[in-house]
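ASSEMBLY PREDICTION REQUEST
Request ID: AP-0331
Submitted by: J.K., bench scientist
Number of chains: three
Total residues: 735
Priority: normal
Notes: Please return the full assembly, not individual chains.
Input sequences:
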Amino acid sequence: MTRRPLNLAVLSILLAGLTCASLNASIIIPTDLPTLVREAQAIALGRVVDVHGVMRPGTRRIDSYIVFAVDEPLKGGADQTIVFRTLGGVLGRYRTVVHGSPVFKPGDEAVIFLGRGTAPYPIGLSHGVFRVRTDRVTGERRILPPPMLIDRAGTMTIRRGDGTRTQIPVASFTSIVRTLVARRQP
Amino acid sequence: MTRRMLLAACLVATMTAPAAAYLKLGFRTGNRIVSISWSQRPVSYFVTNRGDNQVSATQFEQAMARAFATWADAPTIDISFTFGGFVGAEPFEDDGMNVLGFQAEPDLERVLGATGFTIDDVSGRIIESDIFFNTIFDWTVAPNGESGRFDLESTAVHEIGHFIGLGHSAIGETELTDGRRRVIAKQAVMFPIAFPTGNISDRRLKADDIAGASDIYPEGNFDRQHGSISGRVRLDGRGIFGAHVTAFSLRSGKIVGNFTLDDEGTFVISGLEPGLHVVRVEPLDDGSIGSFFDDEDDVEVDFMATIAPRLVSVPRGGSSGNITIDVRRK
Amino acid sequence: MKRLPLAAALLLGCTLPCAAQARKGSVEVAAGGVWFSGADLGGSTATLERPGGGEFDLFTTDTRLEGAFGGAATMSFFVASRLAVEAGISYARPNMSTRVSDDAEDAEPITSVIGLQQYIVEGNLRWYLARARGKWQPFLRAGGGYLRQLDDSNAHVETGTTVQAGLGADRTFRERAAGRLRRIGLRADARVIGRSGGFDVDDKLRVGFSAGAMLFFGF
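STATUS: Completed
Returned structure:
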């Protein structure tokens, strides 16, 4: 009977001392898939094997460093492992949350489009990440591609719920990316 | 001992649960979502004592003051701000001040600005918040905007929306053209994609912004004068997560939105004017799920835009009662 | 100029039928059915703001209050032989429907509907014309009322006012000079109703029609 209030008090103190730093990334300028392909320094299909937070010196701002095992390189080097970072992460009692930045956990599978730098960010935050989803019924691995213009000189209004824009097999998506990468080669 | 272990588990869950990217910013603690907000008034802010090539520190401060006033002056939002002065500190330094300023972030080549918080992870109380504006872009504070430059005040109004606890709104339409995806129309400052350079439309709040901020900081009579719609969205008879639901007032023409926020497909749209509303559901299948949700994998996108077959009546100071909207698979 | 007094004389009559003469001071109750016409409430467009200041149409709506049958009851007191003061209540369950179409994202056009419960409490004056048309005794009827509409979940109430005017006729089946129940008959009428408030998409005065038939009992 005497221990319960003590435990609750300890909890209250711990919780009261719990604060976290968070960063809310915000307004962006998105692009289309061909431009993403052109701007990306590296593009790869793979899976996340590790995520750890690193705090920028002198700030409360935490980035997550993602260790990414490459299954299929699509642009850039043929490294079997890539390390990139995302805004936001967890470090001890601190957490940075980035509204609009992708959040990864080990096992996540995706095609990533990375920007410049030794530990680059995905381009346009989550706009440079295409996650592999597994169909609950068929088990097929699929990706929801972004809206794409066939004729780049044209203009296309993006309609939500467009019945022609559905998730496609991973191989189909990587094939599209490879085609776009090949077009960029001299 | 068992109790101690249980408490420890709760603590871990509190610390690691992802933040929810909803109309209101928040994070999940156990089974509940805690919205973040300021508890004190006025909220003081400071401005870095340097500008960039195009905007002086004084011009920057004046643009921030106007942007803060845009939120504070909305009659249904109970929040106020005060300018604390110019400081040498940078945004995101561990200094205990709410600092706004320019910063160079060349690796974030498509991010105009960002807002950071220090929050109490239990109550959701905001302790500190900073905003940076990325100097890799060209900015302007010209009264009518300036071609080729982003309007600092418009971007500040958006960031201050985050500063007070709002997430992104999905009320907007985009198009692909000339290698870019650009906004062709929107009805919320908190839409995650900026209007093109030269535009100053986002200096004015829209109904969705006001409803969201008023929900967090309701002026005295707001809750009694406004109502809400709640319900479920189902696909193949099952609730779906992440569907965008909007309510259109037949009387005022205002549009306010929110999302289904659990696997049951439940949603609540608050801050609505009383009267009849058309309710509409659409998927976030246009390539920007991550702008709204951290748990992107669970967001259902494989359905058609759908109008609810039932007109929904919003009572003053109450809820419509639950409605169910069945959507059709693509 | 000579026609005006002539018309007035025809309208008011020089002599009253015996039934009308006997009504002064009597009370009458009536109950029956009533039909309310629908009314177009107008269209609106859900719009988003374009960067240049124009509008992007998300979808369009066209709303109307559907016609409905209901019930009505009145109580009247004859303050004069041809003038009755009437209090009444009517109840109906009209639907309000909105046609939603031209969706920018190809949502299927649909008619969204909500059921309403509608009460009108009204006060009228009923003025009987002197000259009977065969077995029918025509009258003019006009007044005002209080409108109360609830949505079908009873969560939301909207109120308003009505003004109404029309004409009708009574046909008395049985009449006697003594006894408690002195008259039984049928009353039919048609009216123009102006409605302000209630469930609506704006604050305009809406004009519609109603027609009713009631059995009346005079005491």
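REVIEWER COMMENTS: The helical segments of chain A are 3-16, 33-39, 170-184.
SIGN-OFF: pending second reviewer
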